[in-house]
Design goal:
Strand order of the largest sheet: 5-4-3-6-7-9-8
Shape: globular
Largest sheet: 7 strands, mixed
CATH class of the largest domain: Alpha Beta
Number of strands: 9
Order of helices and strands: HHHHHEEHHHHHEHEHEEHEHHEE
Strand content: 5-15%
Radius of gyration: 22 Å
Number of domains: 2
CATH architecture of the largest domain: 3-Layer(aba) Sandwich
CATH topology of the largest domain: Rossmann fold
Distance between the termini: 62 Å
Length: 344
Amino acid sequence: MIDDDVTAERLELILGGHVFFQTLRAAIDIDLFTLLARTPGLSLAGLGQATGVAEAPLRILLLGCTALGLIERGDPGYYNGSLGEKLFSRDSSDNIIPTVEFQHKLVYRPMFHLAESVRENRNVGLSEFPGLGATLYERLALQPDLQRVFHKSLETTSSSNVEQLLANVDFGATRHVVDVGGGNGTALCALANRYPGLRGTLVETQSVCELARERIARAGLTDRLRVCPGDCFQDPFPEDADCFLFMHFLTIWSGEQNLGVLRKAFAAMANGGVAIVFDGAQSNDQRGPLRAARWSPYFLALSSGQGMFYTADEYAGWMRQAGFMDVRQVFTAPDHAVITGRRS
């Protein structure tokens, strides 16, 4: 038996992580948090009538969400906790429901293969998705519905993370930024909106470029932003840019590949150009944080079989090896780092 109550509860969260995640996802699926946001204080019977769920399974979901602090049981009924209200109600502008769907539909089953992936040093979890290609991204190109789930989640995280980037990097003097592996263009659109004089090019695969064109058109930025379909590692980069942005990109690949793509960027820009890496990072002492520990197995077991949340020192080291000078690193809360370097 474990005497320390805090340790015992942490053990429950570790052993029951798969159960608790699916409890959350099931509650979202029946719109429990949205319902309580609109009608707080509903009783068990009232929730059953509103959701069409029988009493016994509804009690099980409510027990799980209450134990996790997502829902509170009060008088006379149930209420959202602060996290449930902000993150899981569809009425909240801050909701992360797309991230939950990404984890459920793309990550959950492949994690069953993590032990094999560790032993074999490859993304064994990719077997959960039929098709050709050695990475998740290649296979998603053949499954447009899942690809949209992926990029909707990426859009949700990028929208919040890009504010950290803008708070730490001044793009005021930038003429033309190339966003390498920029997904559906969420970050590039944010940069263009903040800096009206900035032009941008997004380098992505063909199928993702189609999503980016839609995103850019919705933002009314087709006059300043363009897409460039291609292979980030094989095809040449645009040569008229004075800034290369690698946002949520280097975590996917091996150190050798990251060094190679940074060298390509160095060669493509003129003197005075700037490279920016903005990505999730583990602490330089390699002891955390939890988000780095949660995401790194995804890159090994599913995404590419090669990446992880690297340390800021590693990102900075590759930038120096690529030839950049005046390399600087800044940690941004809670688990990202900005690394900048200049071609002298």
